[in-house]
TrEMBL record:
<dbReference type="InterPro" id="IPR011294">
    <property type="entry name" value="3-OHbutyrate_DH"/>
</dbReference>
<dbReference type="Pfam" id="PF00106">
    <property type="entry name" value="adh_short"/>
</dbReference>
<dbReference type="InterPro" id="IPR002347">
    <property type="entry name" value="SDR_fam"/>
</dbReference>
<dbReference type="InterPro" id="IPR050259">
    <property type="entry name" value="SDR"/>
</dbReference>
<dbReference type="GO" id="GO:0003858">
    <property type="term" value="F:3-hydroxybutyrate dehydrogenase activity"/>
</dbReference>
<dbReference type="GO" id="GO:0032787">
    <property type="term" value="P:monocarboxylic acid metabolic process"/>
</dbReference>
<protein>
    <submittedName>
        <fullName>3-hydroxybutyrate dehydrogenase</fullName>
        <ecNumber>1.1.1.30</ecNumber>
    </submittedName>
</protein>
<comment type="similarity">
    <text>Belongs to the short-chain dehydrogenases/reductases (SDR) family.</text>
</comment>
<keyword id="KW-0560">Oxidoreductase</keyword>
<dbReference type="InterPro" id="IPR020904">
    <property type="entry name" value="Sc_DH/Rdtase_CS"/>
</dbReference>
<dbReference type="InterPro" id="IPR036291">
    <property type="entry name" value="NAD(P)-bd_dom_sf"/>
</dbReference>
Amino acid sequence: MSLKGKTAIITGSNSGIGLGVARELARAGADVVLNSFTDRDEDHALAAEIGREFGVTGRYIKADMSKGEECRALIEQAGACDILVNNAGIQHVEPIDTFPVDTWNRIIAINLSSAFHTTAAALPLMRKAGWGRIVNIASAHGLTASPFKSAYVAAKHGVVGFTKVTALETAEEPITANAICPGYVLTPLVEAQIPDQMKVHDMDRETVIREVMLTRQPSKQFATVEQLGGTAVFLCSEAAAQITGTTISVDGGWTAL
């Protein structure tokens, strides 16, 4: 599944799922553009390191995904966009009646509206190149719901719907749009939560993972960032040329319940 010669832009990709996806796309031969809202030396060094490791070009471009103009500028500054992975996202847990309005607006902007802005800027470049792949990182919460996560669930459902519209608008072109819906993924952020959960529940590591953190994930195993990256690579391959407008769940059976 070679992606040699393609340029992939991955939003929110200096850690976690985005970084895992970027690494797998680079492993497949794609030049990668990493992104986040910071502009540190280590951000640029991370992109360069991926480039060296996989023999591709690795760049880092700062852009705040809560701001539409910066989302579009990211694509313009990259100069090419054969593969767009909309991954940037944040979370907040609180009941609807006390959910902060500013936090709601920020989650919708970063988790949903950013995908609109980047896609709008990327499609002309894909059409000019005669090929394109859009992979939106949604969530199991794009297909189901949990209490106290109103903004996140609304945004991820929106991402799934937006993916379908994008697919229909590009259906007769060599461009596809699909959404990956992860369940719980073992990222550094999640890993850091395990010791605290062990203390709170007075459980050992394996028990707190199975009985607390993965209570809704039937496999009782975290998905990995490498698995999500591999799924993205597949969706960008020619084997997936007729897969568009759909979701692929990487959730250990969560949405089968």
